[in-house]
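Bit of a strange request maybe. I'm writing a small parser for structure token strings and I need a real example to test against, not something I typed by hand. Could someone generate the tokens for this chain?
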Amino acid sequence: MSILNVITYDENGAAGKTPLPDPQTLQWDSVDVEAEGCSGTNQLGEYFRDVIASKVTLSATWAVLSDEEISGLLKSIEEKSFVLEYPDARLGKRVMTEVYVNSRTAPMYCYDKGEEGQEDSWKWQGLSISFMEV
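Reply from user aminoacidic:
Good idea to test on real output. This should exercise your parser:
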């Protein structure tokens, strides 16, 4: 079972899974979303805040990926938003939620000049992606 799966639905509503390559690291974060202008400190020095939601952020990084692997991964998450299945730290089980990708960073690791008759290729190491709950 893959750690992360992109869930897609066909015209009949049937779900399909696209497994992503397993990341080298996966960091789970929960962020409180506060109502604008509704948090701070009053004249008595008391702190107050109006939390309207908690959102999950997943930060994933991958080890060395080939051109084909990184291209497939990036193409599978290029929609504006999509459903992602992942292990949730708070709930202690796998969940599905709608996310968008906040950032994608892919440093090149090395260039591999192909032999005669073969294409040149690149290796990518440290692809970093942040998935933000909608």
